[in-house]
Amino acid sequence: MSARLPASALVAFARDLLLRAGLESDKAVTVAEILVEADLLGHTTHGLALLPAYLAEIEKGAMTNAGEPRVVADFPAAVTWDAQRLPGPWVIRRALDLAMGRAEQNGLCSVAIRRSHHIACLAAYLRPATERGLMVLLTCSDPNVCSVAPFGGRREVFTPNPIAAAWPTAGDPVMLDFSASITTNALTKRLQTEGKKFPGAWALTAAGEPSDDPAVFSTNPPGTLLPTGGLDHGHKGYALALLVEALTGALAGHGRADPREGWGATVFLQVMNPAYFGGAAEFRRQAEHVAAACRATPPRPGVARVRLPGENGLALRRDQLAHGVTLHPSILPALTPWTVKLGVALP
Predict the structure, then answer these.
(1) CA–CA distance from 206 to each of 44, 80, 148, 154, 211 (Å)?
(2) 122 pairs with which residues across the strands?
(3) Under a CB-based contact definition with an 8 Å cutoff, are residues 17 and 51 in contact?
(4) For 209-230, what is the mean pLDDT?
(5) pLDDT in tens, 271-284
(6) pLDDT one-digit tens code per residue, 94-125
(7) Domains identified in the chain and CATH numbers
(8) What is the DSSP letter of 199?
(9) Hey, what's the torsion of the CAs at 11, 15, 17, 22, to 10 degrees?
(10) In angstroms, rounded to a whole number, what is the distance separating the alpha carbons of residues 162 and 178?
(11) Which neighbouring-strand residues pair with 269?
């Protein structure tokens, strides 16, 4: 088993690499915190595993190092930003702070964001809202990339188009983060690098044949990922992907209809304040009743107990904060060349 490393040391390590690469101080700190938060929650493909690619984007000028988003529209409950390719984790953290403040004043606030750089793990942003008694919805698409076919098709149109949401209960919040595709691009690349297969027919070859081989993405033309639901019920994931495209690119006014600019994200974020709807106490009463009913459901054979979304991740986060983070074995080797180039010691 890999040695466990303190989360604070990993944040400092990532921050120092980003600073040496040229990112502004506040942006470097926020990006480092979000990447490590993803690893704390167990999202090992969307945490520090992304840092080498982020550093490469900074080096070639594809990620903006400094500045602020440009305000496209600003109403009390509806805001649109052009993020001007600033680092996604910093942009989303800023947008969340804005949306939480306005939701506490106005009941809700939505922020549509065009032209952000990649935003990493969506689940890593959710806890601050639930800790303030708020409900949050976050989704994104990358209009510069396509790897997922619409249901019934065999050519890529979408990215995995993740959807995340969270709301408070008496204990841990309910916290979900899933994709409209059957898996993510990052996991596909990891499995291909490791010479492994998907657990099932999660992809299509370029000819439209089902496949469990991530290598179909290296053919010319490439294969595609299937929508969530796969060959039988992929119409459901396809519908979710279309919803995400409407919430992100359509609302932000910039998406797949525009020229490609490079790896990035178009984002929709909404924060809701239960106090302005049926009331905060009634929200908790209803949410906790449903949560308790799910937990009390007798498990089917082979299942220990019924869990709520986010339950395992939050338990893992507590354990790793107390005892150190176990990184995926590929992460530090991938960062070693950057430590040499930028003069930052490995943790």
Answers:
(1) 29, 37, 12, 7, 10
(2) none
(3) yes
(4) 95
(5) 999 999 999 999 99
(6) 999 999 999 999 999 999 999 999 999 999 99
(7) 1-66+308-347 (1.10.1530.10), 67-176+228-296 (3.30.1370.60), 183-225 (3.30.60)
(8) S
(9) 170
(10) 5
(11) 111, 138
